[in-house]
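Fold this sequence, please.
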Amino acid sequence: MKTHTLSLLLLTGLALTGAAMARSLPDFKASYKLEQHGLRIGSASIALHMDEQGRYRYEFRSWPNPWIAWFTSNELYESSRGEITATGVRPRQYHYQRSGDSERVANLAFDWQSMTVENDVAGSHWKMAIPAGTLDKLATQLDMMIALDQGRHDVSYTVADGGTLKEYRYRVTGKETLELPAGTFRTVRVARLRKDIDQETIIWFAPALHFLPVRIWRRDGDDEEYQSELEDFSRSLRDEENDR
């Protein structure tokens, strides 16, 4: 099992003010099961905290099931901090930490005055120029929730990822009703558009939960398939008026 797979599974009309956009996303926590070939291989959780000024802290954690720990003890923690502004999510700091038998630490600091991001990855330090709207890879999930709430169907991002700038592109491809461990939800199905046809990612977002991702399916280049599904969530996410 690839050590980054758990992270990859969990894996945006901007007339609103930053504060109004912040209020559109409540503080929440959500938990997921992670599966391969129908077997549970781990668990994951995400959590969002917002303040009245539109500043956010978004966190992701994943860890293997005990029997998987015989093969890999890797646990993963990611966090993105920044603001939600009139033009969308604007990160300030991103932190990545993989612990266990394959350790790795990365930190990104965004400087929007100089339009640069400072990278500190595995002991190496460098800066690179970034265009307006650049995100870290975790912040794209928050921005997708906002974009779908605004009715957008094609979304693209410039992402500071792995020390380079990458393009992440997504497109709404339909609607489905899913039965999940956390309940039954009407969802919007979104595909990640890739130049690499050997990989495929599909994400299902639930309008009734402020467009929280409730299922993520991924096929890797070696044809291995992985899936995560929502198990539990904060009641603050309920948004029945938006269930369309």
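The radius of gyration is 17 Å. The domain at 5-242 is CATH 2.40.360 (YmcC-like fold).
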